[in-house]
Automatic annotation (TrEMBL), chains A, B:
GO biological process, one term: lactate catabolic process
Alphabetized PANTHER family for the sequence: D-2-HYDROXYGLUTARATE DEHYDROGENASE, D-LACTATE DEHYDROGENASE
Organism listed in the record: Acidihalobacter ferrooxydans
Keyword Flavoprotein listed: yes
The UniProt record lists the keyword Cell division: no
Top-level lineage group: Bacteria
Protein name as catalogued: FAD-linked oxidase
Limits of the FAD-binding PCMH-type domain: 44-217
Pfam families: FAD_binding_4
Length: 448, 448
């Protein structure tokens, strides 16, 4: 907890702002979806903001920043709280600033949308769609998630098979960021430098506005194919990812997963499933490649009609696969893997054989550096943290890259970089932004 | 020449068809752009059709096929004659069938256009553009080239950085093809099988109609950047090809090339050039990456406004680079190379150093199997066929793939496959289609 917290002073210095401090509100604003990990759930459960600020506009947000900076109060930013690693959990108390009222869509032109950080991705997508565009990338939580939260704590998801992750140059073009100082003057960060704000959990600046590059809207269709053999399904995914077919999503689920996540009505028992969002232009090629591997079309629907509802297949993919499985079976957790191109399918097959029912294969095809690649969000039957660490270590030893989702530490998750740290020194000179998320931010001794 | 050629009989059997047989017409219809290669120019120059058929519709085309099949007359198909390997040169005389009057656009829906084989790519592109689409792939000769000629003898070009080559599954979805028989019944070929008609020079069936998959039309801009150092230009191209930026073209020209091809007004003497068609959304990233390599924007124009005119930068790329250089200096010819991903830039640098002014680097970035890749269309100062063969052999020994543009033989160019040969047996049982283009078609002894 923050040593010298004094809400009265904060209120006085930022009197226009809505401040919340009852226990239920503070608890709600101090949690995210890190309960996907039993390790994080245990570690982060008791973290609690001392107050929640809900600025209505950017000038109020600047007032909150100024007040906290003057008092030396930690400030943790929150979008919709859909992160999975405690991104917005205030490990050292202080203020959580809920950015969701900063939700204006500021402009749409030439395939770029400029928004305030609290704008919801679903609302942005609806707005740009009228201009013939769509968001390039969205998490499976797009109905709740915000533009700022996605960039500060997300990765990609729907659309990553076309455009890679948020980190790839070109997906996010600019950000307006406020420093954590007593007189915060917002700064426009453009070009390559904007990437230093990516996936920094709000530790190195307060995102106020973002420019997202858009994709042309295509006539998408959602399709689900079933396969008797998992490796046939995986090979189909691999072949389709390497064909000249416009895709928005390509997910492979091993046979035990569909009944765990509510797809038993669409996928016959014992069958593996490939879920995709594919342009109508590509449907025939998808059918032809599926047939080569013995796959059958089991379900189809228009994507635009299903989009934004729980009917959409995209809500059975990425970390919604994990979410749905967890709702049915709380003993499940997950991995985040990258199988290196060139030996992806071999490693998938080897890891699948090695762990059997303990680690269930869930593959997501995406691009990395514009190269088709295969990621895993395997469902793990959790036994103990020691066993989980062992599984992670074994994957790494076998050549599978693991971005550990069972740590709240940014640098342990494998995503921090020198540019991030340089911005941290520049925009958070007193180390007040989201403290405890970096091993190097001076808060190590205060781990919860 | 064809032993038993009898035009009177052909005319009688296909009386509706326009037949041409004067020397100038036969000569014109027997040539293509294979004069880019001094080897092919010498070898193919005297090949001559005995007659030219110009069917006005598909039923007339079938009548020509039937008449030739009955008489045992070789039949060679011709679109606009823009091929570079003698694709439509009638090595053994007989009839050349000019397909250019079969130019109907039959339908546009769901990102697919269906056309007759003789439709010009520029006309197709204009038609689909009204529906918000554009052709995925076009050669630099798109103003003349036809849909059928492109598929039967082309590769890709403009757009290959997004969608690869015509060979990739998904770019061409179907073809209606007539067999070379006395009673030709057209057959619809769909799915993976259509690829067996790709780049077969019309040796294994007569293409009547094609379905091309389309791309969403984007707000493209043409840009030309200059660099002092070639490898900085190449690295810039490589970085941009791997970024999340929508591109339609990405070409790198070594410093001696711009003044050879009419770009001296745009590129200062001694500078290397990077030409691109990039979405407006991606311009800022292109600028940022160029700046990292010391590049400067030298020229910019709207792509849609320049498209279809000689002003467009696309007419300085792909084999139009070669064409323009040849117009100024007839001692030039070219290579077609693929630099293997992973060591592309190293091999480019090594080959460039090795040959100096004898082989000038012209790179085209594209995709192969959906992976960004780097191809070369190097300009070669021609000394002798022996030296050219030596250069090709040295490239291959160094690990550079060469698709030899100095042979009229399909299987020597490296593009034939078992599926092509199976269709050949099925659709051309008497070996009359474009004879002499396959080492295995029984015409070896008759090489010109």
């Amino acid at each position: 907890m923050c040593a010298a917290f004094d809400l009265a002073t904060l209120r006085r210095q930022a009197p226009e702002v809505e401040w919340l401090d009852d226990e239920a509100q503070r608890k709600r604003a101090s949690r995210d979806f890190s309960w996907f990990s039993p390790v994080l759930k245990r570690a982060l459960d008791c973290a609690r903001a001392e107050a929640v600020a809900r600025p209505a506009d950017q000038s109020q947000a600047l007032a909150v920043i100024a007040a906290c900076a003057r008092q030396g109060v930690p400030l943790t930013l929150r979008g919709a709280g859909t992160g999975n690693y405690g991104q917005c959990v205030p490990l050292h108390g202080g203020v959580v600033m809920d950015m969701s009222r900063l939700d204006r869509i500021l402009g749409i032109a030439d395939g770029v949308v400029r928004v305030e950080a609290g704008a919801r991705l679903a609302d942005i997508d609806t707005a740009v769609r009228e201009h013939g565009w769509e968001l390039r990338l969205m998490p499976s939580t797009y109905r709740m998630a915000t533009a700022g939260g996605f960039y500060a704590g997300g990765f990609g998801g729907i659309g990553s098979i076309r455009y890679g992750s948020l980190e790839e140059p070109g997906n996010v073009l600019a950000a307006k960021v406020a420093p954590m100082t007593a007189r915060p003057e917002p700064i426009e960060v453009r070009g390559m430098a904007v990437r230093d704000l990516y996936h920094a959990y709000g530790t190195n600046g307060v995102l106020l506005e973002l420019e997202y590059a858009l994709a042309p809207c295509l006539p998408w269709v959602e399709r689900l194919y079933t396969f008797a053999a998992f490796m046939d399904a995986a090979r189909f995914g691999h072949a389709l990812a390497h064909a000249a077919v416009d895709l928005r999503l390509l997910t492979v689920l091993d046979a035990p997963i569909p009944p765990l996540i509510g797809l038993e009505g669409k996928v016959p028992d014992g069958q593996c499933a490939v879920l995709m969002v594919v342009s109508r232009t590509g449907v025939e090629v998808a059918d032809a490649l599926a047939a080569q591997g013995g796959g059958h079309l089991a379900f189809e629907q228009d994507h635009a009609a299903a989009f934004g509802t729980a009917r959409s297949l995209i809500e059975y993919t990425w970390n919604h696969t994990t979410l749905r499985a967890l709702r049915r079976d709380q003993a499940i957790t997950y991995l985040q893997s990258d199988f290196p191109p060139g030996q992806a399918l071999e490693l998938v097959e080897a890891m699948r054989s090695r762990y059997g029912a303990e680690v269930l294969m869930h593959l997501e095809f995406l691009r990395r550096g514009n190269v088709p690649s295969c990621a895993g969000l395997q469902l793990v039957r959790y036994r103990s943290e020691a066993r989980l660490r062992e599984i992670i270590a074994e994957h790494r030893a076998a050549g599978v890259y693991i971005a550990d989702p069972h740590t709240w530490l940014l640098d342990e998750g494998g995503r921090s970089n020198p540019g991030q740290m340089a911005l941290k020194r520049r925009f958070d000179p007193h180390g007040l932004l989201n403290p405890g998320k970096l091993t190097t931010d001076g808060y190590e001794g205060l781990k919860p």
